[in-house]
Amino acid sequence: MTTSSDRQPLPKGTEIRGKWNGKLYRLDRLLGRGSNGQVYLASSSTKAKFAVKLGIESAELQGEANILASLDHTEKGRSPFLLDVDDTVLEGKNVPFYVMKYIPGIPVKAYLRERGSHWIGVIGYRLLERLSQLHEAGWVFGDIKSDNVLVGEYGRVELVDYGGASSIGRSVRQFTEIYDRGYWSAGSRIADPAYDHFAVALLWLHALEGKRLIQLTKTLIPQNRHPRELMKIVRSNSRLLPLENWMEKALTGRFENTQDASKQWREAIRVSQKPKSPDDRVPAWMAGLLGAAIVISLSITAIWLLQ
Ligand SMILES: Nc1ncnc2c1ncn2[C@@H]1O[C@H](COP(=O)(O)OP(=O)(O)OP(=O)(O)O)[C@@H](O)[C@H]1O
């Protein structure tokens, strides 16, 4: 059997033309590969950028495209994600593909490593706000993991791989074992917003304590996989400790809804950033100096501009 990972990436500049819609796309580079296809950055004659997923199994790919179409339909307020669905012929073979909005950005784990873990506050809030829209439209994302949460400039967050989304109340279609609440004996695999809250908590554990998390999965026997084991890691990490309450609620499914999870996240971040002891506070004389420096620099800029 051929899987997408067996396939060599197509060379830069490969052109694919849709058999039915006739649109032409020029492949630029491989963005990533999944179990049932490869995703390329591509451009059209207008130079606009797209993400094109070329599949192996047309039924699988069609299923993903149907979900994307249905999401675009239920979430009318945002720009469409699915842009084209077609077949092409490559090396004499029929290859199904679909075209999506291109999401620039890097996986959240890499972003926090490069820019610093203090970005967790903003990124977490934006992720929960995006999930809240999705949940209100009746969908659960399901496969939340670092590769599917892309972060762009200034901590802008977008989800990719909506092909794994499930309607609320159905079985979760696609998940990654270590992010799955069923794996951690913390609930079922029936899609509800709490399923995504749990995976968001695992996202932070994976991003900030990846090694210990993986080690835990290797050493715990299945009967002992439990949120309390995850909470031990949370309590021993200085960035996660102030979010202890939030993490516990996410791991045990105790938020009323995603708006509640988002509100409580914001509050936990706000409290964690408050100076705790008098020693942490900026002394009045230093604040005064800083204020004076800002006034002076603003005045200098104003004078310079008016010259
Ligand atoms: N619209 C997009 N814009 C930018 N990058 C994308 C886009 N869609 C997918 N990618 C990149 O391609 C990778 C592969 O995407 P794909 O949808 O095949 O899913 P996957 O989650 O990696 O695999 P699987 O669905 O088999 O678990 C993603 O992890 C992401 O890095």
Automatic annotation (TrEMBL):
It comes from the Bacteria. GO terms for molecular function: ATP binding; protein kinase activity. The keyword Nucleotide-binding applies. Keywords: ATP-binding, Kinase, Membrane, Nucleotide-binding, Transferase, Transmembrane, Transmembrane helix. Residues 25-307 form the Protein kinase domain. It holds the Pfam family Pkinase. The chain crosses the membrane at residues 284-306. InterPro entries: Kinase-like_dom_sf, PAK3-like, Prot_kinase_dom, Protein_kinase_ATP_BS. ATP binds at residue 53. The keyword Amino-acid biosynthesis does not apply. Belongs to the protein kinase superfamily. STE Ser/Thr protein kinase family. STE20 subfamily. This is Serine/threonine-protein kinase. It comes from Cohnella lupini.
